[in-house]
Structure formats: C-alpha cells, structure tokens
Known about the structure:
The protein is mainly β. The chain has one domain (21-106): Sandwich (Jelly Rolls). 0% of the residues lie in helices and 48% in strands. It has no helices and 9 strands. The chain has strands at residues 27-31, 35-42, 47-51, 57-63, 65-70, 73-78, 82-85, 91-95, 99-106. The protein has a 5-stranded antiparallel beta sheet, with no helix packed on it. Strands 3-8-5-6 form a 4-stranded antiparallel beta sheet, with no helix packed on it. A hairpin with a 3-residue loop joins strand 1 and strand 2 (35-42). The protein starts with 26 loop residues before the first strand and ends in a 6-residue tail after the last strand.
Amino acid sequence: xxxxxxxxxxxxxxxxxxxxxxxxxxxxxxxxxxxxxxxxxxxxxxxxxxxxxxxxxxxxxxxxxxxxxxxxxxxxxxxxxxxxxxxxxxxxxxxxxxxxxxxxxxxxxxxx
Length: 112
C-alpha cells in the first residue's frame, strides 16, 4: 500500500490531537527528495528504542511529554519544545504521557 504524502504547496494543519491522541498512530506527512516529515505518536510508557539516521533531524513536541535520550543526556520534551540532532546521533524516545511530535528528517547527508 502506498503512503499518502502531501503535494507541493498544499497546506497541512498540524494541531494537537487532544482526546484522539490515545488512539493515534504515526502519520507520514511529506517525503520529498531532501526532506521527510512525520507526525510521531509516542504513547505513555512506550519507548522507541535507540536508533540513528544519517541526516539531521528536528523534533517539535506538539502535545504531551516524552523523554529524549541521547548519549550522556536525557531531556524532557513538553508542548512547544523543539530540538535538533546532528545526523548519526543515537537517540531514543519514551512517552511520559501520550505525546505527539513533528519529526523532520533531512535526507541530505553530504556536509557543506
């Protein structure tokens, strides 16, 4: 099954899911030549195990609260928090409460 991705110049509303968050799943929003955007849902008590991607990423916490673990640090992300990770940085996320985040992944791995 092909995933739907937003066409160029189409407006997408990224708002808190509120009561619908408990039953929500990850949603692909955009995959272009150089950028991928996903609404990531992290349920309370669940962990996305440590992993890494070659490109840089950003995470914007839309709602809820989760722990972001990187080598040597653990940070709590709450609504409105934004973080950038360099490409190749190992990281894991654990939901403290049901949370949704906007994840962007750079698909460009060449350094300028």
